[in-house]
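[Meeting: bench + compute handoff]

Bench side (C.D.) handed over the final construct sequence. Compute side (W.E.) agreed to return the predicted structure before the next meeting so the bench team could plan truncations. Sequence as handed over:
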Amino acid sequence: MKILIIGGVAGGASAAARARRLSETAEITIIERGPDVSFANCGLPYHIGGEIENRSALAIQTPESLSKLLNLAVLTHTEAISIDRKNKSILIRDLSSGTASTVTYDKLILAPGASPLIPDLPGIELPRVHSLRTLQDMDRIMGDLKSAKSALILGGGFIGLEMAEQIHHLGAKTTLVERNPQVLPPLDPELAKNLATALSSNGIDLHLAESLTHIEPGLTACFASGLRIQTDVIILSVGVRPENFLAKDAGLTLGEKGHIRVNPFQQTSDPDIYAAGDVVETKDAILGSYRPLPLGGPANRQGRTIADHIFKGEKALPYPGSIGTAIVRVFDQTAAVTGHGESFLKRNAIPYQTVTINAASHADYYPAAETITLKVLWTPETGRILGAQAVGKDGVDKRIDIIATGIRGQMTIDDLCHLELCYAPPFGSAKDPVNIAGFAACNLREGLLKPIYDLPKPDSQIIDVRPAAKAQSQPIPGAKNIPLLQLRSRLCEIDSSQSVFTICQMGKTSYFAARILQQNGFDAHSIIGGAHLNL
């Protein structure tokens, strides 16, 4: 069995390692255009900022160590030029010598990844304008940052946010510009506000809804609004595109955005050619449609699936599709997502319901409890969970991992209510935030909670049920303060002929107040997320 792998890192290296564990006799060759075949690309920003001190820690395996460990051939500085599907061969070129040659395969694995999206704009090719994909990109960025007093990051996605934090740690004046009206577009806007606040409060100069038009010599970035930013270094982090030229030229089936379409065993439209990682689109495990997902976890598991199918056939465990679970740290805030958010569901006209709760990361009477804002989305008919998002200082990863597991198990909001999770005061609460989200979702479904997701107009009847001191220090426009403990005795102060909107700090007390009012004949609505999320 001759297995030829184009590209290393996550998908390709994982496929090679699993293939060798399944067969000592297979002839395995990895072809890599660059000098590195297996490195931790997700760690690159953290070495730039100095959190990962040793560069060598990012090199998981060198070509030599990987070759020795797995008894395979590693051809670095070698470019795959074309695929001859009929003769099952690849034309390759040694980039050092320029020599071209042909190698044959029984099974071909495409794992070339995705390349940074470089806008076709004047000045984008200027020195000190960088993108980040490889160890060599990292080295160049670090070289320019040594003498830089300022840096501009274009793009506020996962990598852009990480780079902003890390460059700020180096002491350079850091500016982040995002073309959307919020950072981290996969996150719904109300939760993304926390990240914008974290950036600004740590000295990052943040500009939203700005579109780059060109870069002038002297490194001045110019935007459609008239904004001009002069800087010493520019980092492009505006997205990625799949490295699909081999697949496209070979006539393999591609998706709408150019990703290679694969089946559950990662086979392309040619059964002897597999693909994994950022270059592919797989089934959406929630909705069944196809989607690309450029994340390291799926890429590694897809590589394993490929090797299993090559040697086990239909007995192999198929890749079940992706749900999209990701996380990022922005100074003291953590944001995580799994499944689909409200923005995506609206765009695709998919029916959903949602609830947002604020809860403590562990028992609130135990020191250092932090607030987690957790949003859950589900199907109205069945209650099946469609997605979840969370932002906070502590415990965000745990809650999103729990719900990601629930999504994989096709769990419903009812199941969230009775998940049995670890509880001791330093770690959690008797009612975990995940449980509370389930309770709130069920309350909404049953009509016990009539939600409103934004502050109503100031001329609406808004009742602030927080303690008087809190209402005075953080006033809500147009609201009348009636603390919860006084509500039953002051019902006469509320106009029963019009709707009433209750608000508290975090959302829970507002719900209690709305229930009191509803059972006393008022049309009461609770403002989801409270002042914490809406002010």
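W.E. noted at the follow-up: The chain has 16 helices and 31 strands. C.D. will use this when planning the next construct.
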